């Protein structure tokens, strides 16, 4: 096989070879810096003393955040031995989850009195490395797969210095490392700022929901009332009424219906092509998502036709993650809801179904639901509980206005989430191409 101009072939894993730029090198990690295990202390030594990097701090951010560190009582000799220096990289030596072992975080602080836990291996790179670049590299899918493959499992998944130090690693010239790190850091900053916009928008939405669903829009006169429990006293507009789910529905005996129980349908009945069956996992953030949704045969659909959904039905989680709800869209008509869920059908022209679904997503509704939960091993509810949940109802016109306001915020959140997903895909692609030398950067 002919090589690209400016590239060379070098030995890699499993007796294979890879192409890298001619100026790049491949070495074992322990040839490019020093590895040392962290400080082990007794339980009573924690909670006071010097700052201390532990397992959870590795996952919090790309770089260690001093404000989130705990403390440990360490001697001067221990601090001298285990103090981190700017540019060190902390890697998890032991992890409950296999995919977490060897995960890195950069120490980028000037404070030289912060130590690290015995569950962490510190790598101190030599001068061939730009530490920010190396952290990106060790977090890349390519290197994560290699590191995890070197681990061993018992109760936890572990990796030792010898195994970690033996991994092969691709080394560009320092100037190229710095340029690649700058590109990836810029993408990371965009992802972080987008996440902040999403978080702030969700806070705004939460506050607006609380205000709009209880105080309404433009009201002057209010009345005090209790919502089901004496501890839930609220003030609502005088014009608003409180009715429970069953009272709002025009269906006397079929407002809330439980999905088919286990004896009626088993996971062994699922087929690769058929009609989707809505499970708890398919109800996410007010929507029914069709990723990883099971399907059942037309024969079973006919047998279970009473459990078909209609447009604007509300599907409500009945067990496990109780309290999540989603509206059925036109494209989902005819799907079936499972025994893990409840179906609410209103068929009330004086009701904006989206208003009710927002109500189900509110903090107020959660406070009403929690005291009603059944079950000792896992939470659950039944049709009677849901039928009797009270809902604050303004006029249809006001419901429509509230839905418009909240839908606009949802649209902005959804747009930002899609943008963030796009950035994350871009970052993954850039890491794959830049960190292997497939695409070069101009220096």
TrEMBL record:
Q: Which Pfam families match?
A: Methylase_S
GO biological process, any: DNA restriction-modification system
Domain of life, per UniProt, equals Archaea
Quote the Gene3D superfamilies the UniProt record gives: Bipartite methylase S protein, DNA methylase specificity domains
Keyword Protein transport annotated: no
Show where the Type I restriction modification DNA specificity domain sits. 21-195, 283-425
Name residues in a coiled coil.
406-433
- Which family does the entry's similarity section mention? Belongs to the type-I restriction system S methylase family.
Q: What is this protein called?
A: Putative type-1 restriction enzyme MjaXP specificity protein
Species: Marine Group I thaumarchaeote SCGC AAA799-P11
What are the leading ranks of the lineage?
Archaea, Nitrososphaerota, Marine Group I
């Amino acid at each position: 096989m002919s090589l690209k101009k400016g590239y060379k072939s070098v030995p890699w894993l499993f007796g294979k070879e890879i192409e890298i730029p001619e100026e790049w090198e491949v070495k074992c990690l322990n040839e490019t810096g020093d590895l040392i295990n962290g400080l082990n202390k007794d339980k009573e030594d924690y909670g006071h003393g010097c700052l201390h990097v532990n397992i959870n701090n590795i996952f919090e951010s790309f770089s260690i955040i001093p404000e989130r560190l705990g403390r440990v009582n360490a001697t001067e000799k221990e601090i001298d031995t285990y103090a981190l220096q700017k540019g060190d990289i902390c890697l998890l030596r032991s992890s409950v989850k296999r995919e977490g072992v060897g995960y890195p975080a950069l120490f980028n602080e000037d404070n030289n009195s912060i130590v690290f836990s015995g569950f962490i291996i510190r790598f101190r790179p030599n001068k061939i490395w730009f530490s920010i670049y190396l952290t990106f590299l060790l977090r890349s899918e390519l290197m994560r797969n290699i590191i995890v493959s070197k681990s061993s499992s018992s109760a936890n998944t572990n990796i030792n210095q010898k195994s970690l130090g033996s991994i092969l690693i691709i080394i560009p010239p320092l100037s190229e490392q710095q340029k690649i790190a700058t590109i990836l850091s810029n993408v990371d900053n965009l992802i972080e700022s987008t996440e902040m916009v999403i978080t702030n928008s969700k806070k705004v939405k939460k506050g607006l929901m609380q205000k709009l669903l209880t105080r309404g829009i433009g009201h002057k006169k209010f009345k005090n009332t209790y919502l089901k429990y004496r501890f839930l006293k609220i003030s609502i507009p005088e014009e608003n009424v409180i009715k429970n789910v069953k009272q709002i529905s025009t269906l006397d005996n079929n407002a809330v219906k439980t999905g088919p129980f286990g004896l009626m349908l088993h996971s062994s009945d699922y087929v690769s092509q058929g009609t989707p069956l809505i499970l708890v996992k398919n109800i996410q953030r007010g929507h029914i998502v069709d990723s990883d949704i099971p399907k059942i045969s037309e024969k079973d659909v006919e047998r279970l036709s009473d459990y078909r959904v209609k447009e604007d039905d509300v599907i409500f989680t009945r067990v496990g993650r109780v309290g999540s709800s989603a509206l059925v869209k036109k494209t989902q008509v005819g799907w079936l809801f499972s025994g893990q869920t409840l179906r609410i059908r209103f068929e009330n022209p004086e009701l904006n179904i989206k208003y009710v679904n927002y109500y189900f997503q509110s903090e107020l509704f959660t406070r009403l639901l929690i005291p009603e939960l059944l079950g000792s091993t896992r939470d659950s509810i039944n049709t009677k509980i849901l039928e009797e949940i009270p809902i604050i109802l303004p006029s249809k016109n006001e419901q429509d206005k509230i839905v418009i306001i909240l839908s606009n915020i949802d649209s902005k959140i959804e747009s930002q989430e899609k943008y963030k997903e796009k950035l994350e895909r871009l970052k993954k692609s850039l890491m794959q191409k830049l960190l292997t030398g497939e695409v070069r950067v101009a220096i």
